[in-house]
Amino acid sequence: GAVVSQHPSWVICKSGTSVKIECRSLDFQATTMFWYRQFPKQSLMLMATSNEGSKATYEQGVEKDKFLINHASLTLSTLTVTSAHPEDSSFYICSARAPAGGNEQFFGPGTRLTVL
Amino acid sequence: QKEVEQDPGPLSVPEGAIVSLNCTYSNSAFQYFMWYRQYSRKGPELLMYTYSSGNKEDGRFTAQVDKSSKYISLFIRDSQPSDSATYLCAMSASSGGYNKLIFGAGTRLAVHP
Question: I want to staple A44 with a disulfide (CB 3.0 to 4.6 A). Which of A36, B11, B14, B108 is the partner?
Fold first, then answer.
């Protein structure tokens, strides 16, 4: 149980284009999902908290107009990187809070974004 | 000072060794403690989840929490090459809601045959 998937697993795009990453909870409903960014050999950096049916809460320093988050259903959250640039190249990972209000988070496999 | 401190390693041990991984923290409000394992280019996988102080055992893994010392540990017995990964500690202050996890930097572990 508590499986989270992400799609795509990797994407290469040209500078200036937008990329959408999907995060799905496969066997449970997730009212809260989280989006992280991870650079090589570094820990996870929380970008935003995604709440079903309401606006996402962004961490300080994260541009909400650049990283658009939509949590339209209890099993799907999407992150869109708008007008991507090479400095946006990174490993993006989503997670979902455990069902029944638990505090642990279950992570997706991650999406590697490379912007040329 | 970071809220959660974790030695990034790398830690290299021979197969079969007992591995001890540790984190210290400064926020006395933390009550929920987790250990995640992350293989290269993969998402973190939850290994252990504990509440408040005490020990929890699952197979070869034992998690310990000492809230009085603000110190948590993960022990791996009979370590295997497949245990080679980065281990992240994480913690939070309260349950439910939109409470965030605070992660350590992660410790890179290499178990050599």
Answer: A36
